[in-house]
Structure formats: C-alpha cells, structure tokens
Amino acid sequence: MLDGFLALYVFMLAAFTGYEIIARVPVILHTPLMSGSNFIHGIVLVGAMIALGHAQTPLEIGIGFVGVLLGAGNAAGGYVVTERMLEMFKSSRPGGPEQRR
C-alpha cells in the first residue's frame, strides 16, 4: 500500500514540476524544446511497454495499454512538429540553392 502512495506522490510531483517548467518557457522556444525532447518520448514509450508486459490484472493491462497509446502518440506528434519546424527553414524559391547563382 505504501508503494502505491509513494508512486502516486512521485507522479504528482513530476506532473507539477513539469507543468511549472513548461509554463515558464517563452512561446518562441516551445517548438525547439519539443523537437529536442523527442528522445524522452521514446524512453517513456519503452517504459510503458515494459509496464504493460508485466501487467497481470485487467486494470493494469488497461492502464498499460492507455500508457502505450499515449506514449506512441506523444512520440509521433513530436516528430511531426519537428518536421513542420524544419519545413519553415527551407527555401521557398524554386530550384534550390545551387540554381541561385
């Protein structure tokens, strides 16, 4: 029982700390911050898959499935945002940089 409360405490502390850190980031830095943290989304996804692999009760399996689903969506969304950000830096001129001379 104590382990459950400790896990809930750590989760709530991490959620509060994450919210406070992200809330203080200037708007212009949100996209680079997201693209720079894509590896963290992958680690979260691997952790959710490991937790789902160890699940035994239907409740644990359901929570694990939702965790994997949200982790995969978060990782894929991070790469989509990164791709959109990189598209903004490409030249809109036809022909590319070698034909500008």
Automatic annotation (TrEMBL):
<feature type="transmembrane region" description="Helical">
    <location>
        <begin position="39"/>
        <end position="55"/>
    </location>
</feature>
<keyword id="KW-1278">Translocase</keyword>
<feature type="transmembrane region" description="Helical">
    <location>
        <begin position="6"/>
        <end position="27"/>
    </location>
</feature>
<keyword id="KW-0520">NAD</keyword>
<keyword id="KW-0472">Membrane</keyword>
<keyword id="KW-1003">Cell membrane</keyword>
<keyword id="KW-0812">Transmembrane</keyword>
<dbReference type="Pfam" id="PF12769">
    <property type="entry name" value="PNTB_4TM"/>
</dbReference>
<keyword id="KW-1133">Transmembrane helix</keyword>
<comment type="function">
    <text>The transhydrogenation between NADH and NADP is coupled to respiration and ATP hydrolysis and functions as a proton pump across the membrane.</text>
</comment>
<dbReference type="InterPro" id="IPR024605">
    <property type="entry name" value="NADP_transhyd_a_C"/>
</dbReference>
<feature type="domain" description="NAD(P) transhydrogenase alpha subunit C-terminal">
    <location>
        <begin position="8"/>
        <end position="90"/>
    </location>
</feature>
<keyword id="KW-0997">Cell inner membrane</keyword>
<protein>
    <recommendedName>
        <fullName>proton-translocating NAD(P)(+) transhydrogenase</fullName>
        <ecNumber>7.1.1.1</ecNumber>
    </recommendedName>
</protein>
<keyword id="KW-0521">NADP</keyword>
<feature type="transmembrane region" description="Helical">
    <location>
        <begin position="61"/>
        <end position="81"/>
    </location>
</feature>
